[in-house]
Amino acid sequence: MTLTMERPAGAEVPVSEPEAAPAPDGEVKPREFLIIAYSGDLEKVWAQMILASTAAAMGVRTRIFVTFWGLPTFVRPGVRITGENWMQKMMSGMKRPGIAHRKLSTMNFLGMGPWMMRKLARRYSVASPAELLEIAQAMGVEIMPCQMTMDMFGLKREDMIEGLGEPVGAATVIGLISEGATPLFI
Amino acid sequence: MTTETIAATVDAKGLSCPMPIVKTAQAIKNVPSGALIEVLATDAGSMKDFTAWTKTTGNELVEQTTEAGVYRFVIRRK
Predict the structure, then answer these.
(1) Sign of dihedral through CA atoms A74, A79, A81, A83?
(2) With an 8 Å Cβ cutoff, is B57 touching chain A?
(3) Which residues of chain B have a pLDDT value below 50?
(4) Lower Cβ count inside 10 Å, N or C end of chain A?
(5) Beta strand pairing call for B6-12 and B36-41
């Protein structure tokens, strides 16, 4: 690439310039990425997993903070009813947990929509959310469940998939963002 | 065309975003620094994606060619 600039006659032309100058203090802060997985809708869970695995592949330290409707996505496969009281049990009964049982926010058509979506994904070799989650975890993406929502939904550590980090709260999220992590609320 | 030896090949033909990038990121860890890896992909988005990926990770995109709908990238591990 050539950059031409008007220079006053006689001004010295620098021989070469470094492409990117280091920060004045010489410190390079590593990039960090924080996905706030709030939604449990299939299409948004897909986006969470695509961005998490890609960010990890790009060498960006990536964390997923899992809260509210995002939590059931990270319930272990095979766990059907969760919670301790009838309200929590009813919620999990009406909204089946697990990454393989996400519903579309639109065009769900009693499960016909997600079925078609999965069929199309297979036809076009698009990795499923479950596959992407496995890859993301293997690439070191940290998943931090929200303690408060886990309590409210009656979810216990043993209900959740392997490899989740310690439950944390909102202060951890705000702390990471204020230290420079790029947040994405999905 | 580079005449250096290719240390590994990632066949990501037929795979959609983000798998070509993810597979490349996993494969490049298995070759030593300075070695070349080759990626074959058919996802049209990978043309831009590999430029972005190498820029962010600091690996070098040595070569980028297209032949019969297959994109070929040669990348040198930093």
Answers:
(1) negative
(2) yes
(3) none
(4) N
(5) parallel
